[in-house]
Amino acid sequence: MILDKYVVSLLEQYWNISGVLCLKRIESSVNISILVETINAKYLLKGLAINKAEVYRLLLLWKCLLEHNIPVISPIMSFRAHPYVWHEDHYWILRRYVSGAVFTMNSPTEIIEAAENLTNIHNITVDGIDFCYNSIHDPYHWLYDMEKEIYFMKTEHADISGIEILIKKVKKICNDIRLDDYLQLPTCIVHGDYHGKNLIYSNSKMKAILDLETIGVSARILDIVEAVFFLGRYGYGEYLFNSKQIIDFLRAYCSNISITDKEIELAIKILKLRLIPRADYLRRMKEKSKSAAENQVLWAVNMMKCIDQKFEPLFISSLE
């Protein structure tokens, strides 16, 4: 498939968008992300490798966010008046491109606004969906059938250095936390990937929350501890944590929602399961290159050490 011709045809056929000047493939872990520049506007086209039920739940939750004035961008309707198009084994969703700056590390204003927007998401009541684990990274998948997940890790990825270290970590964590423990935690709409590069600002005001493919209904603490981990650093690409950032985020969040003792008890274990890549994820990474999968495993091994040595003490002390 010649990507340029394919995408141009898709845009013209389903969204009546012509005059494409430039297409740029944006680095993405498993889905297809393409920046589209036309004579009149810029768009982002996403190709999602999910099933029909998952795309329906995704769009239902997306609609909930829009109805509650969360700063997310509406999908553009196709000529069939659908917010998606099924073509070539992917669900394609088009939205306008959002200009602005990503979350600024060490900004007191932006960290508080990030916390307040996450609180607003978590306070939304959604009817008809009890659990919805759209994210490939949700710890639910490990806890639901650990033995199956480990079997695929061993049979498909035994050639990747560090796999055995991660398997041992998973076994230890899953001995300490069971699926029932996870399911009994407070649940809500979760973003599932609430990190700095998915938060767009303009003049220190949040303009948009991006990448809703991982949105679901799951354990609230999953979003909280992940957000603190990724937003509480001194800078992108490093894992040195700013205690003031962490405290500011948690104070702003907890001014509207109380985190339970059980959530605090399980938070670090849940974060670790969130960051350990599953076999399915590594399989998709290998489709790009083996080195991409190897780098992901190496990163996860390093993050386990980082959590134990640097993040956990700060996170726990910040909640006291």
TrEMBL record:
InterPro entries: Aminoglycoside_PTrfase, Kinase-like_dom_sf. Residues 87-230 form the Aminoglycoside phosphotransferase domain. Pfam families: APH. It comes from the Bacteria. This is Aminoglycoside phosphotransferase family protein.
